[in-house]
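Supplementary Text 2. Reproducibility record for the structural model of the 350-residue chain.

All settings were left at their defaults, and a single model was retained for analysis rather than an ensemble. We include the record here because the model underlies the residue-level annotations in Supplementary Table 4.
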Amino acid sequence: MKPNIAKLVSCILLLVSLTVIVFCDPLSAQAENSGDTIPPGGGYAATGQKEGMGYISKLYDASNGLVTSDANDVLCVSDGSVLIGGYSGITRYDGTSFTKLDTSDGLTSGRALFEDSLHRIWVGTNDNGVVVLEGSKRTHFTDQEKLTSMSIRGFAEDREGNVFIATTAGVCYADTRMALHVLDDERLKEERILRLDSDTQGRIYGYTKSGFAFLIEDKQISAIYSSEELGTEKITTIMADPLNDGYVYIGTSGNAVYYGEFGSKADKLECISVSPMSDIHFISYNCGRVWITSTTAAGYLDDNRKIHILDDIPLILKRAKTEKSISAPTVTASMWLTEMISNTSAAAEG
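Retained model, structure tokens:
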């Protein structure tokens, strides 16, 4: 990671949407040299984990930095750069400027971004399959190579290095030789897969638009549950607990997030109230906190699992005046949120 970029990435809380809002800790340089066990960063400042530390924000859009004013996903790459995926392509931020990558070899849009254990970047496009970036080399996967759909929604990697691909028509995976395979299970064949997430043992959890949650082990679906079977409201997202293998956070259409061992019924799960939020859209773990976003708000859980809504930032203030959908697909000591106009067809379809 380049020093100047590393410093920038470690000190920002960046929210990307139709605009980009940067939260920068003005005391990060001082904190880096203090020996503090909590690293500097806007995410830590925003959650109050750094005593006496605040943050400032800067709004970016196409008028002052971004190449275009749309974003679906963001990724902090291990080399220190930041990638932003939008309907018009992929934009790279190097710590100084935004640059749009050329659209050759299928890189026409970005719905999902993922870096695997070999530091290859997987780009899921909206309607043009998957493009894998490996240095200057690009590999383009389409329905001609066994993709069940050209519209991609996410990725996850198992312990063997297989990369699983969430499509709008089931799940595929690329093996370590980069050969594509279909995860052949009739229960998911026609399902729109909206997220995949792996635990430290390489087990992969996912959910579908219709409200099913499932588990992939040894390249097979080992368990699948409907929202009704679990006794929850409709499942709207899932995240593997990075600190406790086999446990998950499940977001729902209501104002609760459920936590516990995957497959447990609702009465055996911890029910975490996130009111006034409802219709949970995304859950992630960043800066020592579980972050939760809905179609109208973003917040985090403290050590007592109490929700704290971020209501003092331009993103949240702006969405109060417009119809937006917020998600948080993201990152490191930085926190990135993507926002999408909720009345667009993409937001409606997932």
